[in-house]
Specification:
0% strand
């Protein structure tokens, strides 16, 4: 219940060091009213592509996979390389997650009708056992 309440009513703090364009993009995606959310409405994806945050993106090149990324990190340990993540985040306990002891109410479950998801252990390793 606490998690759902935070999602529905909580404030979403955005750090002051994030650019104005990025703040606007995040707020647009996090808008609770679906009709006002960035990417919805008559313009759809175009409203996202035209957002100031993406002003330097050449979408035609992007579609052709010709756009050069501004940052390309060097992956050292394959798919499971976590060297760019701060160790402090990798060792944090998981908190504020619904557990099997408090199932989601049927009224909340109705919001997810038609959605399905199966967690594949191969895609989601136990990060606490990985060494950086």
């Amino acid at each position: 219940d606490e998690l759902q309440n935070k999602i529905l009513n909580g404030k979403f703090p955005i750090p002051s060091w994030i650019s104005t364009e990025a703040k606007s993009l995040i707020k647009g995606f996090m808008e609770r009213k679906v009709k006002k959310r960035l990417g919805t409405g008559p313009k759809g994806i175009t409203s996202i592509k035209n957002h100031p945050f993406f002003k330097k993106v050449n979408w035609k090149k992007m579609l052709k996979k010709e756009e050069v990324p501004p940052i390309r990190p060097k992956v050292k340990k394959g798919k499971l390389d976590l060297s760019y993540f701060d160790q402090a985040f990798l060792t944090l306990p998981i908190s504020d997650s619904p557990s099997s002891s408090s199932p989601i109410s049927p009224s909340i479950q109705d919001h997810f009708k038609g959605f399905s998801y199966s967690r594949s252990p191969a895609n989601f390793p136990n990060f606490s056992t990985l060494r950086i």
